[in-house]
Amino acid sequence: MQKIVFNGHYLMYIDNAMSEYWRALGLPYDASMHALQGEMFVKKASLEYHASARMDDTLDVGMRCARVGNSSCVFEAGIFSGERLLVSGELVYVFADPVAQKSRPVPEVLRQIITGFEAGEDLAEVKTGDWNALGRDAGRLRTAVSVTEQGIPAEIEADALDATARHAVVYNRLGQAIATGRLLQEAPGVGRIGRLAVDRSVRGTRWGRMVLDALVEAARVRGDREVQLHAQGNAEGFYRRAGFSVVGEPYDEAGIEHVVMTRSF
Prior knowledge:
It is a single chain. It contains seven helices and eleven strands. With 265 residues, the protein is α+β, with helices and mostly antiparallel strands.
């Protein structure tokens, strides 16, 4: 065996990076393409090989949009091992009717999202408010994540506390809700954050942190001296990076391991 990566695998790596690019745009791909009434089809893919990746190498894949034309988008990719460029690539996508598969102009809003991302602009905004203002979007997203995905009973996920909570929802540039959470008054001077949910197709980026930061700030402005939350075990690291510390031992809630975490102001 040569112990080097098979040439065709590099296209798979780039395709995975392309999925991460859409996450960074804050666009759930299927829902966004449905809203835009089109689909992105690969028209051309080309690779140039400079060196080989070897067994156990750690690779980084960079993506950028080089140009948005009338009906096409040109993306450039680079696959690196450390600072060494192994493979460079170019992918040409055409925006087209999903049924007829005939090209159509790239929607102006999508053009602005892509060019804005490349220019370093904010691609989403967080809104805070009561259940009357944000409940429809927050509830739909929470149901998709907690009930449908995680199997938490609907009667546990939704409760009477929503009516008095402060809610936060992150909206992308298509107006789609992609992350949400709520802030309760646990006790005088103590806030409690919960019901954090992020659309799974854009998870792993910064949208959950945007919600968390907005709710922490709302608690601080309200005058709370401390904010706490009940974190699922697999999210403990996420909350630690936001300044929260574990209090007590893990416990079970709705069949999922949780741990209490707090942050003081």
